[in-house]
Amino acid sequence: MSRTLDKIRMLVGSGDTVVSAHGYDELAEDAIAVRDLIAGIAAASVVEDYPNYGKGPCVLVLEQDSVGKPVHVVWGIPKGKDRPAVLVTAYRPDPKRWSDDFLRRRT
Question: What is the pLDDT of residue 1?
Answer without folding.
Answer: 81
